[in-house]
Amino acid sequence: xxxxxxxxxxxxxxxxxxxxxxxxxxxxxxxxxxxxxxxxxxxxxxxxxxxxxxxxxxxxxxxxxxxxxxxxxxxxxxxxxxxxxxxxxxxxxxxxxxxxxxxxxxxxxxxxxxxxxxxxxxxxxxxxxxxxxxxxxxxxxxxxxxxxxxxxxxxxxxxxxxxxxxxxxxxxxxxxxxxxxxxxxxxxxxxxxxxxxxxxxxxxxxxxxxxxx
Length: 213
What we know:
Structural class: alpha+beta
Helix content: 25-40%
Order of helices and strands: HHHEEHHEHEEEEH
Radius of gyration: 20 Å
Number of strands: 7
Oligomer: single chain
């Protein structure tokens, strides 16, 4: 893994300005509990539900059922459930992390997730995706997620969400955006709504804050 410039500068300040290696640095800064948590992020456990793969630590059966019941395709629901927003995964005093740190972390996790999936599910097709919007004004986020290409995406009628043939569906849910509004309520269910590109642009004008799954 290439060391981002922001970390290289930090390492160079240690040892009276002579610098230290990343391993020496983490041996002084980290803890065993940090190691366990990072290990589950870097080399995660997976589970399988309805022929699709999910990160075990992210999976919520009721949440998945609600997404599917509200018309999300199996592939969209899987991508949503496995979504990791890398730019704000580590909470801290910084208002924002350097983009090179965010991208370096995402690329590394993509490699380790793919290696773990190949080990757990040899020969099975899957796709670990990076959605990089760090340079997009008003958004600045980077999403890492996993989709399983074993099952073809479903096509839904946009009004009834009933399965239809591909020729009948226009536009398909696969080409629409999911919208979920979340507040601070506890033990609550937050529905997901589908919108076309034009509808989405009206609801969320350019520069507004929103997350894209």
